[in-house]
């Protein structure tokens, strides 16, 4: 918080207002909203676009062109099982989007109940859901859409505050929880082993409680090191809660964002329940695209090779954002931000009560930021302070201009706030 | 029905029993159950398996590799709109399976109600559904899964018996109806224009009544002629029922069965309602596969060229099946069958009460037939007489052996029945 005397504050306000007017005069049209890979990153997967060619037969002899196979083909299941360190028999491969599978899992629990339900969730008096914040907006939109009551839990450096989670989970009306356990959206936080085990072991009031383990960034490092992917299915089994996790993964930010392969890992019982509905919904996922992916990667090391290319493209962008935030903001104490080692986002906390104003100022200067509050259920950030920055899509030069502008907006909003006081 | 005197019947029974024993001695392992394209047919689409290559930008500049776009890309929507004779603005392109979209439409109506519903279908005392029979088993499985009461309506040569349909549709608990309007599964019947108009115009008790217009075989001719695809969206709009039809289409039996593109055509209001839920479920369909399909076909004539190849492969198989049925069965009056001009199936009606026995006899002789009753809701054929034959998958030589065997089984079951009497 700006800690200036009145004179200094007025002077600073004049300086930063002038800077903001200069910024507006540039008539920018820049966008930091989207957690999308850049064109350069998508190029890393271009070999896929000519696969599988004439090699359309899977290793077990399946003609991938024809109908059938709710589990996905063994070729990609085996490969991805190695990537995640999970047995292939516990892993289904799907179409492009794991979000689709999450929606289906929850909506089918709503209509039919899941394999541990006493009744369909639609017939419960109330369904509540644990939402660590800040979190992924599209997660919260699903549970909002189904009318669940979303209860927020703060994040620590090791994952969600487990005392709060344990207390909430004891309520039988609490049916589940959203998580992004590795390089979380938008915090970049990776859950510690202790947190993973605690989530696997905790008691829950509802027998059909589920944790959506959206491991969307399991291999999405910005450094030379890959994170440990804990086999929470094993942790849960050991703790006597074998059906606790719906473990999601996908190649969306590895190959083609909109044309990859999704994965759903879980206990056999959970997978059987899923298949009992998925087999009514349709005739199985696109096996051709799965085979193309298996051919493209060759093996788990092929996935890591691909991710090192992404890191080479993304890391300089993240570094420049962090440098600009540091250069422009650190001396004033008006903001804090995460320094992620992976994932797609930087989470920026500005002066309380000013996030929406920062986004508005930026918009008026031609810089699109993700809406304030978008990382919270119902888009309500109780402190109006969190802004999600997505550095992946723009080229570095644009990113620099945009971030310098954002810093100006953060300072101007802080000034305005300080002048009010 | 076998119309022999006792002596002749005993003699015939001896002959046909001997024939059946010969059949069993062959230890066959043949399969007529699956409405899948053959390997030869799938080959017609092999050029797709190397597309789109480096040409991944849609005509409007969209990078098809990245996220986004619930409607699908204009390239394939425009092309398919021409194939169906429907404006592209009324047509969304999706992932591989239109069955998936049908399930979503119905399950979302169940959870949320559709755009004309007074309440979600889950909150209705009872939901009933009109099921013309024989029909497509996977349709009936969806409405069974959601607990709807399925009411059957007989088929005429022009489509479902409209007097029966009108009477049922007047009931406010009747929320919808399954149809396969062109080259129906399994009958091969194509709805006449009068039937199409009558369905568009009829009054319904429920304001949110929907006809699932599963036009799965719209271009799947076995002759040189393509059927007229009536624009029922227009018929319905003219009649003041603009939201009546959920019109489905797909390339599943045109390019790759399990890796094609599906389509959903409807009124703007219906599409908006669909998008309001589909946008929560995910981030849009696989645009790369859509672009590959647009490149593969070039234009609507490209689709017709492709379908002529399929006809060249399928027509001789259908012809042999019909010849064998004629040669072996026509003189005895024990069966009738359809002579379709398109689609994937021949519908065989055997002596009442013997369909299950025919399927059992065939199974014991190593010939797998679709289960008796599978074309009826809950797999219950009230007359136990209908058998769905799927000639597409096996090579002609296998098909001949299998059909000759089936004819023997039909005759033996008819003999057994006659001997009982």
TrEMBL record, chains A, B:
One of its GO terms (molecular function) is L-aspartate:2-oxoglutarate aminotransferase activity. SUPFAM superfamilies: PLP-dependent transferases. Gene3D superfamilies: Aspartate Aminotransferase, domain 1, Type I PLP-dependent aspartate aminotransferase-like (Major domain). InterPro entries: AspAT_Ic (IPR024551), PyrdxlP-dep_Trfase (IPR015424), PyrdxlP-dep_Trfase_major (IPR015421), PyrdxlP-dep_Trfase_small (IPR015422). PANTHER family: AMINOTRANSFERASE, PUTATIVE-RELATED, ASPARTATE AMINOTRANSFERASE. This is Aspartate transaminase.
């Amino acid at each position: 918080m700006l800690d200036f005397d009145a004179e200094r504050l007025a002077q600073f306000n004049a300086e930063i207002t002038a800077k903001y007017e200069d910024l507006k005069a540039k008539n920018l049209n820049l966008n930091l909203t989207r957690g999308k890979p850049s064109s350069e990153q998508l190029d890393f997967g271009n070999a896929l676009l000519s696969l599988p060619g004439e090699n359309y037969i899977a290793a077990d002899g399946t003609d991938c062109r024809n109908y059938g196979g709710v589990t996905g083909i063994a070729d990609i299941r085996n490969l991805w099982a190695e990537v995640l360190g999970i047995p292939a028999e516990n892993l289904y491969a799907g179409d492009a989007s794991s979000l689709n599978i999450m929606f289906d899992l929850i909506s089918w629990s709503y209509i039919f109940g899941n394999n541990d339900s006493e009744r369909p969730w639609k017939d419960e008096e109330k369904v509540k859901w644990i939402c660590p914040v800040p979190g992924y907006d599209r997660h919260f939109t699903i549970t909002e859409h189904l009318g669940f009551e979303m209860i927020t839990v703060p994040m620590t450096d090791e994952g969600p505050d487990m005392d709060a989670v344990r207390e909430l989970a004891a309520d039988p009306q609490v049916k589940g929880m959203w998580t992004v356990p590795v390089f979380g959206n938008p915090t970049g936080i990776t859950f510690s082993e202790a947190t993973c085990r605690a989530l696997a072991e905790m008691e829950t009031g509802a027998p059909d409680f589920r944790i959506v383990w959206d491991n969307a960034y399991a291999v999405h490092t910005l450094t030379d090191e890959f994170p440990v992917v804990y086999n929470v299915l094993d942790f849960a089994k050991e703790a006597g809660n074998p059906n606790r996790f719906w473990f999601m993964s996908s190649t969306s930010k590895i190959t083609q964002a909109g044309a990859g392969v999704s994965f759903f890992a879980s206990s056999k019982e959970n997978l059987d329940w899923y298949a009992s509905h998925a087999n009514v919904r349709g005739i199985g996922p696109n096996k051709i695209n799965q085979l193309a992916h298996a051919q493209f990667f060759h093996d788990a090391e092929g996935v890591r090779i691909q991710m090192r290319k992404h890191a080479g493209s993304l890391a300089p962008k993240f570094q420049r954002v962090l440098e600009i935030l540091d250069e422009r903001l650190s001396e004033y104490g008006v903001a804090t931000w995460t320094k992620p080692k992976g994932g797609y986002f930087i989470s920026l906390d500005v002066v309380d009560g000013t996030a929406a104003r920062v986004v508005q100022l930026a918009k008026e200067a031609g810089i699109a930021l993700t809406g304030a509050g978008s990382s919270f259920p119902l888009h309500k950030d109780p402190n109006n302070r969190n802004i999600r920055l997505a550095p992946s899509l723009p080229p570095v030069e644009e990113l620099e201009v945009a971030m310098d502008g954002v810093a100006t907006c953060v300072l101007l909003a802080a000034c305005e706030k300080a002048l009010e006081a």
